[in-house]
Amino acid sequence: FFDNPQPMIIYDIETLDFLEINETAIKQYGYSRAEFLQLSIKDLHTPEDFATVVEDVELSKNNQNSHSEWKHLGKNKTQFFVELTAHTVIFKGRKARHVLINDITARKLAEEAAQQSSQKWKAIISASPDGIGMISIDGKIQLVSDKLALMYGYSLAETDEFVGKPVKDFIDPSCHKMMEENVYKFLSGAINHQISEYLAIKKDGSRFYTELNSTVLFDPDGKPINILYVQRDITERKQAGKALQSSEERFRAISEYSFSSICILNTAGKVNWVNNAMLKMTGYSSEQVYSAESFTTFLAPESVEFVITNFMKFVNQQEYEHHYQFSIIRADGEKRLCEKFMSDYEDQSGNLNLIISMTDITERHQAEQGLHANRLELITANNQLEMAQRIGHTGSWVFDIETQKIWGSAEAKRLFGFDENEEYFTLEAVEACIPDDERVHQALIDLINKDIPYDLEYEIHPADSSSPRTI
Questions:
Q1: pLDDT by residue for the chain (471 residues), tens digit each?
Q2: CA dist 428 to 9, 113, 431, Å?
Q3: Which of 71, 11, 73, 14 is nearest to 41 (CA)?
Q4: CA dihedral defined by 363, 364, 370, 373, rounded to 10 degrees?
Q5: Cα(316)–Cα(308) distance, integer angstroms
Q6: Long-range contacts of 452-461 (CB under 8 A, 24+ apart)
Q7: Please, which residues have CB within 8 angstroms of residue 352's CB and are 6 or more apart in sequence?
Q8: What angle is formed at CA 112 by the lines to CA 108 and CA 113, rounded to 5 degrees?
């Protein structure tokens, strides 16, 4: 007992007074032996724990052995966490508890630090506009963020349906070989970072284009254990690229945007942490970013007032805008328009921090403005064409062979007596207006099957019962 390297105490189970202590306990708590023997078990606990301590002692009277965790106080009132293993003994004729004390302060602090770290990265995942996932080295899904689940058409309640399944179950078979090759490169050490495009499968079986920014994670021994990836739906970007192949270069920019940049601010407006994507986007070095007195150093003048006002709402823990657009000034003096997503969290010290995820949308914004101008030109040209057709009593129509639907110009609809507000009408509706429909229908079949053009004159009876016309 006295020479045991672990702190040990013996206390009276009725009075709670200490009956004996060993040298290790004296060193642990800072009391002398005489001082210790003047104390009770309650003196090692914080006042708020007194009631619980008394209740625990009462329960121990009927329990030979017990195991529990507490927060103890030393002589100088320093607090530390302990794990107590106790059993009932008879000591000098008194019923007592013999307690072995194990200091677990380091373990508890490590657990709290791990929890704070987890909260930090959960906040980063929440702030990111992209989906985030993680797979094991054998390709099984281990983590899926809410945004990633929604991207695949699953509800938040269905997120667990991903975990444990092969990631290839959610990728089109045409991309499996490329994915296997990329995973092999990761595990062989050929690469540790990769951006790839795949055709992904949603819950309903539909396909969408996705871009994955992946990196490999290692254990302390340098062995690969996971692949972490950030995923973005680029379907609209791919479609826009195909539609704008013949347009000017600025329209192609709508499909060329980078991954989000992330930084963390404290309540003083100082940057605590910044990733490489942010440095690349802004053109500043990490030294310039960390040494800046405030993040406002990097704002464009027209954005300063709104951004600072919104930031102060965060500082004062008021409701603030989590998503908006603003402008920055790069290190080279260029102004860039950015889209911002924000979320906040408390660190291990209880300090409030703001996580910001940003995307440079300058090119996309410019492309959208140019596309809007082109659409206005197209609408103007279409209006002029309709006016010319009406003056010349000339209509035009397009027959979709696959859907069997017909689109007609305004004048074509008027000639056939159709409602000009209806965008499409059927082949049956057109032929119902033609008494000699067999001849006209056969001409259409020959055109489709044999590529024989036709130039016919025939009578129609408009659908609105107006006078017959010859066309």
A1: 888 899 999 999 889 999 999 999 999 999 999 999 999 998 999 888 888 888 888 877 777 788 888 889 999 888 899 999 999 899 999 999 999 999 988 888 777 766 766 666 666 666 677 888 888 888 898 888 888 888 898 888 888 888 889 999 999 999 999 888 888 887 777 776 778 889 999 999 999 999 888 888 888 788 888 888 888 888 887 876 665 554 444 423 332 344 678 888 999 999 988 888 888 899 999 999 999 999 999 999 999 999 999 999 999 999 999 999 999 999 999 999 999 989 898 876 788 999 888 889 898 888 887 777 667 666 666 666 667 667 677 888 888 888 888 888 888 888 999 998 888 888 889 889 998 888 988 998 899 899 999 899 999 999 998 899 999
A2: 98, 73, 5
A3: 11
A4: -160
A5: 12
A6: 458/434, 459/434, 459/435, 460/415, 460/416, 460/433, 460/434, 461/433, 461/434, 461/435
A7: 266, 267, 314, 315, 317, 344, 345, 346
A8: 115
| Cα–Cα distance measured from residue 398 to residue 444, given in angstroms and rounded to the nearest whole number | 12
CA–CA distances in Å: residue 154 to residues 144, 150, 186: 11, 5, 29
**CA 255 to centroid of chain Cα atoms:** 20
Strand order in the sheet with 207-218: 141-144, 131-136, 224-233, 207-218, 193-201
Q: Using CA atoms, how far apart are residues 192 and 188, in angstroms rounded to an integer?
A: 9
Which of 266, 234, 232, 255 lies closest to 356 in space, CA to CA? 266
Question: What token pair was written down for 44?
Answer: 């090692």
Distances (CA, A) of 359 to 207, 321, 343, 363: 25, 16, 15, 11
Q: By the 8 A CB rule, do 406 and 425 touch? A: yes
Structure tokens at 240: 């826009």
How far is residue 319 from each of residues 263, 295, 309, 312, 328, measured CA to CA in Å? 21, 20, 12, 10, 24
Total Cβ atoms within 10 A of residue 218: 11
The whole model's pTM is what?
Answer: 0.33
Number of H helices, E strands in the chain: 15, 20
What is the length of the chain?
471
Q: Which two tokens stand for residue 31?
A: 């009391």
DSSP 8-state code for residue 32: -
Contact between 66 and 93 (Cβ < 8 Å): no
Bridge partners of residue 20, in order along the sequence = 10
Place of tokens 């309640």: 157
Amino acid at site 333: G
Helices (H), 15-104: 23-29, 33-36, 50-60
